[in-house]
Write a structure and sequence with these properties.
Blueprint lengths: L7 E9 L11 H4 L1 H19 L8 E10 L3 H14 L32 H10 L22 H4 L4 H7 L3 E9 L3 H4 L13 H7 L7 H7 L8 E5 L28 H6 L5 E4 L2 H5 L8 E5 L8 H7 L7 H12 L6 E7 L1 H7 L3 H8 L1
Parallel strand pairs: 1-2, 2-7, 3-4, 3-7, 4-6, 5-6
Length: 361
C-alpha cells in the first residue's frame, strides 16, 4: 500500500492556488505522521471495495505528476473560454485535454494550520500524503514555520524517496526556480520554504535550516535526481561569479562561495549541464545519464513575454519534459517525473489574466 508499484504509465494532474491565509488550529491527532496515512489507506480501501476487483489491470511502471500551479476551477473555465474565442469557436462545451481523462477529483486544499494553503504545504501534501503547516516543506505537523530546531525530528518521506528505494529514476522540470516550493517539496526538509540559498537564511535571520539549493546537491534524495531542469541559477552560484552565460550582467547570491552547479556536475556518472534552449536540444542522450538545465537566474519569462521579446533561449515546458523522459526512460525499473507549469500562479498574483490563461494552455 505504501510502496510504488511499476508496470504501465500513470499520469497524475494536481492543481492548487495560492492566496492570503487565515490562521486555524489543527487537532492534535492531525499533527502525527500516521494520521494522514491511515486516512488515505481507509479511503483507498473503501474506493477499491466499491469498484470491485481489478486484479487483471497492469500496475504503473512510470509516474508523471503534472502540476499547474494556481490552476483552480476558475482558471480552467477562463482558459476554456479563451481558447474557444482565440480559435473562433462559439462552443463553451469544448473540453481541455485533461478534462477528458477518465477519472478526476477534487481535494480539500487547506494546510494544517491555515484555511488557505501555500504551495509549500500543498506540494508537501501531494508528495508526502500529509497535511502540514504553511511555509514548511517535507516535515510533519510538529514543525512550525521558522522552527529550524524541530526539522530533524519532523522529517517525513516523500514519493521521490520511495521511488528511489524501488530502484526508479527521479527528476523534475519547472518554469520557476528549481529551489521554489513546489519542486523543493520533492527533496527538501525545512521550516521555511523561503530559504532557497544561504543568502536567504541570512535575510530571514534564521540559523539551523539548511538552504534548499544545498539540499538539492548535497543531501538525499535530491542528490540522486537524474534530471533537474528550470530556473534559479542565482541560488546555486556564488555572489562573485557570473551565473549564466546568457545573463552575464547578473551574478549569483550564495555567501559560502560554492558553485553548486559545478559541484553537481563533478558527481559520478555521465553528467551534462545546459544553459539555454539550443544546448538542451543538442544534448547527446547516449552520453548523458544526469541532466541539469539552468535556463534563468530567477523564473522563466511568461509565454507572452517570450513571444514579444523573442527570448528563444528559453526551452518550452514540453521540450524540457521530452528531454527529461529521454534521460529517465533508460531505467528498466521506471521513473518518477514532476512537471510544473509554475507561471499560472505568478500571473494570478500580478492580476495578469491573459498571461494566466496563456500559461495554462
Amino acid at each position: 500500500m505504501r510502496t510504488i508499484n511499476q508496470y504501465s504509465t500513470a499520469i497524475f494532474c494536481a492543481v492548487f492556488a495560492l492566496c492570503a491565509s487565515i490562521d486555524g488550529g489543527p487537532g492534535s491527532s492531525q499533527v502525527s505522521q500516521e494520521y494522514w496515512l491511515q486516512q488515505a489507506e481507509t479511503k483507498l480501501l473503501n474506493r477499491r471495495a466499491r469498484q470491485g476487483s481489478r486484479e487483471h489491470q497492469k500496475r504503473a511502471k512510470n509516474v508523471i505528476i503534472f502540476i499547474g500551479d494556481g490552476m483552480g476551477p476558475a482558471v480552467v473555465t477562463a482558459t476554456r473560454i479563451y481558447r474557444g474565442q482565440k480559435e473562433k469557436r462559439d462552443n463553451d462545451q469544448d473540453s481541455l485535454f485533461w478534462e477528458e481523462f477518465p477519472h478526476g477529483g477534487l481535494v480539500k486544499t487547506h494546510s494544517l494550520n491555515q484555511h488557505v494553503t501555500d504551495s509549500g504545504a500543498s506540494a508537501t501534501a501531494i508528495f508526502y500524503g500529509r497535511k502540514v503547516n504553511s511555509r514548511t516543506l517535507g516535515v510533519d505537523g510538529t514543525v512550525r514555520q521558522n522552527d529550524c530546531s524541530a526539522v530533524d525530528n519532523g522529517k517525513i518521506e516523500s514519493i521521490a524517496s520511495m521511488a528511489l528505494k524501488n530502484g526508479m529514476s527521479v527528476g523534475f522540470v519547472t518554469t520557476t526556480l528549481v529551489t521554489d516550493a513546489t519542486p523543493a517539496a520533492l527533496f527538501a526538509h525545512t521550516a521555511q520554504r523561503g530559504i532557497e540559498s544561504d543568502f536567504d537564511a541570512q535575510k530571514f535571520k534564521l540559523t539551523g535550516c539548511v538552504d534548499i539549493a544545498k539540499q538539492l546537491v548535497d543531501y538525499y534524495p535530491g542528490n540522486q535526481f537524474k534530471v533537474i531542469l528550470g530556473g534559479g541559477s542565482r541560488k546555486m552560484m556564488p555572489n562573485y561569479t557570473e551565473n549564466n552565460p546568457e545573463e552575464s550582467e547578473l551574478i549569483g547570491e550564495r555567501l559560502d562561495g560554492r558553485n553548486l552547479v559545478e559541484d553537481w556536475k563533478s558527481g559520478s556518472g555521465r553528467r551534462s549541464v545546459v544553459w539555454n534552449r539550443d544546448e538542451l536540444l543538442d544534448t547527446d542522450y547516449n552520453k548523458t545519464d544526469f541532466l541539469m538545465g539552468m535556463f534563468a537566474p530567477k523564473r522563466f519569462p511568461y509565454e507572452l513575454d517570450a513571444a514579444l521579446k523573442n527570448k528563444t533561449n528559453y526551452p518550452t515546458l514540453s521540450e524540457m519534459t521530452e528531454a527529461a523522459i529521454k534521460v529517465l526512460q533508460k531505467n528498466p525499473n521506471g521513473f518518477l517525473l514532476l512537471v510544473e507549469g509554475a507561471l499560472i500562479d505568478s500571473a494570478l498574483h500580478a492580476n495578469y489574466a491573459k498571461f494566466a490563461v496563456t500559461e495554462t494552455l
